[in-house]
């Protein structure tokens, strides 16, 4: 009889649905075809004026419309599209009655500049208008809709209504590890027996002038490739100089393996383990000894009941910033040792950019696609190897490979480190 519990006696967590939206396209198949062809979704920004911005390129999803055009509405729209695809593949909740919990990773919410300007102009105030003034203005009169629109949790509430999920929807924002954390929470809820299924989503539609300015001030963005958008993101290369913002959503339907098998669902893979470790060293930088990253990787593998030698592919966080790539390589070498030099690792961000809150969920979905298709996505723009990072980064071209167990890494500003172990079969 096929096992329904893991080595620790907990319910096995199966994946029965995958949904994707990125700048490469809508849906699993379109994204996978573009990704394995090494095609970049990074391009010159068209949706707002870019004069004066140090970085004028991004992986925006220009084929999706939203009204009003702002981060919460766009994030909600991406999440809907990804979740629609995942739920349909799973064959659950097609009538708006999803039989489980909802966990949604969403970007931090604050009034976008167009709405701020509209409120400030209508207020008639002279002098500086504070953010508190704007919030007060958004609670009254014709701007009352802004107050609800920009409340943290609104996106999850609307998605819960649309898909008919059970219980209180959970919204979370743990920087660039958020999407992976949403999946981790779904796994833990199923393991505890609180739910038989979970809809886990990471979404982000926050490419706007203010975000670009803020990341620029942190010296996090690449500024050297405005004239070569497709070549901008260079993870693990010696000439890497920062990330490029992207947007989109990834969604997974998780179920207890027992429940999935009982209803005859097709199981696409398993989330065997999750590891999370906070790092209070700095608001943007990693601890120099790499300890929190090392612990998150090690804990994810141990939680899966595996050993480091069981990992045969790494879906990297791989942002293309000088420090992040160095620290990720350090962490992997510390846990996997010299064997890491021969374990393939690639960064989807080289093609779709850094989707921030959505990244962990998108990359978990692509990790499953790697297992299902037996093909490793490349790390494009790898022309100048970095001798300090002696890893097999699957440079520039996809590669066929039998993959059974993937480590998917997500490391965020503020020391939010979350890693997932995803496998073809339980161990």
UniProtKB/TrEMBL annotation:
A single Gene Ontology CC term: cytosol
GO molecular function: 3-oxoacyl-[acyl-carrier-protein] synthase activity
Superkingdom in the source lineage: Bacteria
Annotated InterPro entries: Beta-ketoacyl_synthase (IPR000794), Ketoacyl_synth_AS (IPR018201), Ketoacyl_synth_C (IPR014031), Ketoacyl_synth_N (IPR014030), PKS_Beta-ketoAc_synthase_dom (IPR020841), Thiolase-like (IPR016039)
Pathway(s) this gene product operates in, as recorded in its UniProt entry: Lipid metabolism; fatty acid biosynthesis
Family annotation (SUPFAM superfamilies): Thiolase-like
Any one GO BP annotation for this protein: fatty acid biosynthetic process
Keyword Transferase recorded: yes
Pfam families to which the protein is assigned, alphabetical: ketoacyl-synt (PF00109), Ketoacyl-synt_C (PF02801)
Keywords linked to the UniProt accession: Transferase
Ketosynthase family 3 (KS3) domain: residues covered: 10-424
NCBIfam families: PRK06501.1
PANTHER family to which the protein is assigned, alphabetical: 3-OXOACYL-[ACYL-CARRIER-PROTEIN] SYNTHASE, MITOCHONDRIAL, POLYKETIDE SYNTHASE-RELATED
Family statement: Belongs to the thiolase-like superfamily. Beta-ketoacyl-ACP synthases family.
Name this protein carries in UniProt: 3-oxoacyl-[acyl-carrier-protein] synthase II
Source species: Enterovirga rhinocerotis
Taxonomic classification: Bacteria, Pseudomonadati, Pseudomonadota, Alphaproteobacteria, Hyphomicrobiales
């Amino acid at each position: 009889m096929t096992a329904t519990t893991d080595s620790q006696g907990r319910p096995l967590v199966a994946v029965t649905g995958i949904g994707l939206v990125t700048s490469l396209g809508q849906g699993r198949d379109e994204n996978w075809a573009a990704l394995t062809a090494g095609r970049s979704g990074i391009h010159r920004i068209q949706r707002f004026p870019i004069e004066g911005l140090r970085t004028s390129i991004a992986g925006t999803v220009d084929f999706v419309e939203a009204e009003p055009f702002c981060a919460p509405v766009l994030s909600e729209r991406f999440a809907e599209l990804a979740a629609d695809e995942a739920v349909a593949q799973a064959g659950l909740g097609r009538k708006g009655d999803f039989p489980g919990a909802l966990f949604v990773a969403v970007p931090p919410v604050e009034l976008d500049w167009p709405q701020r300007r509209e409120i400030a102009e209508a207020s008639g105030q002279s002098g500086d208008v504070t953010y508190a003034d704007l919030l007060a203005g958004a609670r009254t009169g014709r701007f009352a809709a802004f107050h609800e629109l920009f409340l943290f949790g609104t996106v999850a509430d609307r998605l819960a209504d649309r898909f008919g999920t059970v219980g209180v929807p959970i919204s979370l924002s743990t920087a660039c590890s958020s999407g992976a954390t949403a999946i981790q929470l779904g796994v833990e809820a199923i393991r505890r027996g609180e739910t038989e299924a979970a809809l886990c989503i990471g979404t982000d539609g926050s490419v706007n002038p203010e975000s670009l300015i803020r990341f620029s001030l942190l010296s996090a963005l690449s500024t050297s490739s405005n004239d070569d958008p497709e070549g901008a993101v260079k993870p693990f290369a010696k000439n890497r100089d920062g990330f490029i913002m992207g947007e989109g959503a990834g969604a997974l339907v998780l179920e207890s393996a027992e429940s999935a098998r009982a209803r005859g669902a097709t199981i696409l893979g398993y989330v065997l383990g999750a590891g999370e470790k906070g790092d209070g060293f700095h608001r943007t930088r990693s601890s120099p000894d790499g300890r929190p990253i090392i612990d998150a990787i090690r804990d994810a593998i141990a939680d899966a009941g595996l050993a480091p030698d069981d990992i045969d592919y790494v879906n990297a966080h791989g942002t293309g910033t000088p420090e992040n790539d160095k620290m990720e390589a350090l962490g992997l070498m510390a846990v996997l040792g010299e064997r890491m030099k021969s374990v393939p690792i690639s960064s989807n961000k080289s093609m779709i950019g850094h989707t921030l809150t959505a990244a962990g969920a998108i990359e978990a979905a692509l990790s499953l696609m790697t297992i299902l298709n037996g093909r490793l996505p490349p790390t494009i723009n790898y022309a100048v190897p970095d001798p300090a990072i002696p890893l097999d980064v699957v440079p520039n071209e996809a590669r066929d490979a039998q993959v059974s167990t993937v480590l998917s890494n997500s490391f965020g500003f503020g020391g939010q480190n979350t890693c997932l172990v995803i496998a073809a079969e339980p161990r």
